[in-house]
Amino acid sequence: MTMRVLIDPGHAPGNANRGPTGYFEYRGMWTLSNYLKEALAASGVFVQLTRSENENPALTARGGMARGFDLFISQHSNGFDGTVRGSECFYSVRHPENRAIAARFSAETAWLMNHRDRGAKTKAGNGGLDFFGVIRSAVAAGCPRVFLMESGFHDNPVDEAFLLQDENLQRLAVLQAGIILDVLGAGQASNNVPGINVSPPMTTPPPTSAPQPSVPMPPTTPPPVVQPPLSPSAWATEAWEWAVANGLTDGTNPQNPVTREQMVTILHRYHSLQK
User: Fold this and answer.
1) Do 12 and 114 fall within a single domain?
2) Does the residue 12 lie in any domain?
3) CA-closest candidate to residue 152, choices 5, 6, 28
4) Tens digit of pLDDT for each residue in 127-186?
5) Closest by alpha carbon to 174, among 32, 21, 23, 15?
């Protein structure tokens, strides 16, 4: 039986997600998706994209196309503040059995891009359903294996440099194809793919004890943890003491980052002071 894979090139022309030196997410993921399509088709898989180059279907429409397909993958690159690197793969909260596949996508992409493996993840939204509309709608369409892949952070100069190289996108496509073919029991990625001029990378990352010279492994010793000061800065001392005196904070960790939970709690306490 012919396996069927649906590839979603994330976003579309006009999307603002970009890197600092010329990378655009919609363009990079369009290229990656087409290379993946070629690699899978060369191995006998029926492959379809959710959009043409200039189309921008709604997320529900993209996911809804997954009816009758064996695997759906939405291709993305990530963004944050320019300092973060790494790859991660989201899978559906309704299909926990897909965690190992998502972990493999993340780990092997991180190996190829020589950065942090951020792992397999789920993200729940309202009613315990998937937060990402494209995942939610693909699952609703009955697709048994649904993934959203974040291949690096395009606003990080090192990850962006990787994503700007066409040959790297070819290697990433062949790597993903190897994983998909293995998962679907459809063979191995072909060495002879029209339009792709690289050999498939190893689908199992090399052991850290024997890193490949062309893909240096990151240091295994983590950097020392720098503890923030236990006292507020001089310019913040008066305000800090006022906040402690009025019960807005307990007075600990004055220079640590604040979570959303802590922020809304402080705002709630301040609101109560006004009554």
Assistant:
1) yes
2) yes
3) 28
4) 999 999 999 999 999 999 999 999 999 999 999 999 999 999 999 999 999 999 999 987
5) 32
